[in-house]
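Handout, section B. The chain below has 252 residues.
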Amino acid sequence: QWNSMAQAETPGPQMAQLDDACLELLSRLSPPPNTSEVAEQLRRSVEQAVNGTGLLVQQATIFGSIGCGLASGSGWDVDVCVQIDHAHPEDLNAARQLPGTSLKKTVERHTLNRAGGGLRKTGWVVDPVLSARVPVLKCESPEGVQVDVVVNHTEGIHNTELLRSLVQTDCRFQQLALLIKHWVDWPAMRPRLRLRMFECCVMQASRRGIRNPSDGYFSSYCLTLMVPTSRVSVMTDDSIPFQEVLDLIFPF
């Protein structure tokens, strides 16, 4: 039904006006041109600070919106995943003395506390959120940039690689994903359009607080994945690149 509906629709003047408005909005959503350079400097600062605490960082990786090319506006932040092969012996011993808890999670929390101490010595403001599903250091660099630091959260890195592949495959994915993210951040934006199923989900998420996934609502990553899913579900010739990428990632 969705296929036949999509093929039957012919773009008219209103859709052309919407296209122009969206392109104008996208030009304002672009982050500053030096965003990547600033993010890389912050990544190196995190790596150096953590290395200075006696921890050996295997790799420090930028993930999230900056890492996949979906950052927008001036309010962007940087997500850094610090990968460590071996925990500090003191942290490991302390974790083993807490029976009934996940050794991995406890070691991560101790490691983050140690990393936070290293960042504070270099002038960073650090607020540990260790009770979260993924323990995180909510930080602010001396330059005033918000930085989230996690330990061994490789799932976030893999998710970023998937979105980066989609961004590199078709620029329209990046454009539509940025518009959707802006839409759900601005509840007053209520276009009176015939909605597809995924758009109804987005509208409902917007009304109920999309930026609070800890309460069971959509995460930004989930919303972003709805964009290529929608394109594939109404397959036309110009959406084939999305299908090719999904076939490579999900061969089953």
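Note. Residues 77 and 153 are 17 Å apart (CA to CA). Compare this with the example in section A.
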